[in-house]
Design a protein that fits this description.
Elements (H helix, E strand, L loop, with lengths): L11 H8 L2 H70 L7 H18 L3 E7 L3 E3 L3 E13 H13 L5 E9 L4 E12 L3 H9 L6
Antiparallel strand pairs: 1-3, 2-3, 3-5, 4-5
């Protein structure tokens, strides 16, 4: 069955009236809006969402990188601080190549101090070498001093602030009179040993080879 539509035979005025119908106009508007939504607005919304996701991902990466940067700065600061402390500690160790020279170096430092403070020693003995983990070889000596009370106090202070580490492990002060005192002291210094040897002995419990 054939169907033919003759536009010329159709009443043009009636056609215009139908197009002016609110229903037709609203339907046309809905069609246009629908077409615009699918062709323009929906792709735009998709683009905006993708762009937002990309921005959030980028911001997240930047925040992670900033945290890494901050952590690295803190780490570098801590490493620098540790190195400075290590250098200060290392400079306080005896530089002698062996234990006997270490003893002589320690004696030279102590003698220089007590002579400058006008006190004298009446006894001195040295103990066997000992290993101190992460420090080095301990040079331990026992001394007896006597002198003016104020000079004795000045001597103790000078020991504490000397460039080389001298630790008064044991210290006994006896006042003989208002102006005179005697000291019995066990003094400890530390001799440098090569870092690889120091690390090995410290980790293995300090066994002597």
């Amino acid at each position: 069955m054939a169907f033919e539509f003759d536009l010329q035979s159709y009443d043009k005025e009636k056609l215009r009236e139908e197009f002016r119908s609110p229903l037709i106009q609203w339907a046309s508007l809905v069609i246009v809006i629908t077409v615009l939504f699918f062709l323009i607005y929906e792709p735009y919304l998709t683009y905006r969402q993708d762009y937002r996701d990309m921005m959030l991902t980028t911001i997240s990466k930047i925040e992670r990188l900033q945290k890494l940067k901050d952590n690295r700065a803190v780490l570098e600061s801590n490493v620098k601080l540790i190195n400075e402390k290590y250098l200060r500690l290392n400079s306080g160790l005896l530089d002698s190549k062996n234990y006997n020279r270490g003893v002589a170096e320690q004696v030279g430092i102590i003698e220089q101090i007590f002579r400058a403070k006008n006190i004298s020693f009446n006894s001195r003995r040295f103990l066997e070498p000992q290993f101190s983990p992460w420090l080095g070889e301990a040079v331990v000596s026992q001394w007896g001093f006597n002198g003016n009370s104020q000079d004795v106090m000045d001597f103790i202070y000078a020991l504490a602030v000397t460039n080389k580490i001298i630790v008064p492990e044991k210290l006994s002060i006896t006042l003989k009179s208002d102006q005179h005192a005697e000291i019995s002291a066990t003094l400890v210094s530390y001799r440098k040993i090569p870092i690889n040897e120091l690390r090995f002995k410290s980790r293995s419990g300090g066994e002597q080879e």
